[in-house]
Amino acid sequence: MVPYPPKAGLLNRSYNIIRELSEIYDIDLYCLNQENLITPYFDSFEQGLTKAKDELSKYCSSLYIEPDPVRVSSFSKMILTFKSLFSTKPYSTEWLNRKSFANQIKAIRDSQDYDYIYVDSISLISNVESQRYTHEKLILGHHNIESEMIRRRSERTKNLLLKFIFYIEYLKLKRLERIASLEFDRQIVCSAEDSELLGISTGYRDHFVVPNGFDFRLLDGFCRAPKLNHLLFIGTMDWYPNVDAVRYFLNEVWPNLKQQRPEVIIDVIGSKPPADLVELSKSDPSVKIRGFVQDIEPYLAQASVFVCPIRDGGGTKLKLIEAFAHKIPCVVDPISCEGIKVDDRHVKFAQNPDAFVEGIKALLDNRKMADQMSERAYQIAEAQYSYKVIADVFSQSLESMETEECVA
């Protein structure tokens, strides 16, 4: 997808890595576009697309954006899901399969002599032929291990039909991950945990870890001014793990927390919140479902505690690194910290509702401890997760492929 504006996690990572790598490499960028990832941030889709082209052209030698936006209605998703049950190809790739886009990629590969072809998600794989060109090296990026995410959904849902559909999708994705491990020269993952999961899925373990990061330039002028009893969660609300996390927190954690701390307030920020969460907020004024917010800095500044009850998804959670960078003390499900090198000196871990309540209360009641934890988390983020560092790691991955070829 067009990696601008860099708001959602995947787009944030892609944009910042492109920006940093452009100082070393000539980059040609080919991407699909999806209206709902652009329109909320501009007066119109056309204005947003023009801004995206202007911004990305600063870093790319050539830029192609597929003119026909990806539009998938709820009804068409149902139809595609049904059709995918009778296909060997997973829904996760078919919804982004665009013949015209694939033809454009083939044409440019036929006419140019590239050193590397980087495919930014396994969901895009159907648009890229695995055929080898002269000197090309094919690289596949994994923002998450998709088969593992869908397996967890299959285990969690109580709906038997969905359980079946998710399990079939899991098997297809696992098969595709195995095929990709043979067809691509390198696979890049966001964490050591993801590398391990992909290795279990494919039997192939030569992955290169390039974690997610944060653009520390965004901290210029930022000043913390936490308000007592203010909690914060940030995450795009059309991504299942985020919605699941908020529902879990508000249904399982919030009632007990409110009973013990009636004055506590939570801001939930992220575009496209589902109707049930919006309705819940109407019945409880201390639950602020904000939806899309143009400027999140005031919310980051006033948050006493950042909660991250994500129980699914891989990679490294950008929202958590962002909280570390802004020195907000965090209470987290351990799954949300997968891929981030922290322990209980940096965050409060919570694996169940009671642990979330106790962790939040502890940080609210002990400001000194909260400040010490958030400072240690900030130091981790600054040293390991700035995008300058991340881009250097990515570049090392490319250079190591050349070294391996010379040794061979």
UniProtKB/TrEMBL annotation:
Keywords assigned: Transferase
Pfam family of the protein (one): Glyco_trans_1_4
Gene3D superfamilies: Glycogen Phosphorylase B
Any one of the GO BP annotations: lipopolysaccharide biosynthetic process
Domain of life: Bacteria
SUPFAM superfamilies: UDP-Glycosyltransferase/glycogen phosphorylase
GO MF annotation terms: glycosyltransferase activity
Protein name: Glycosyltransferase
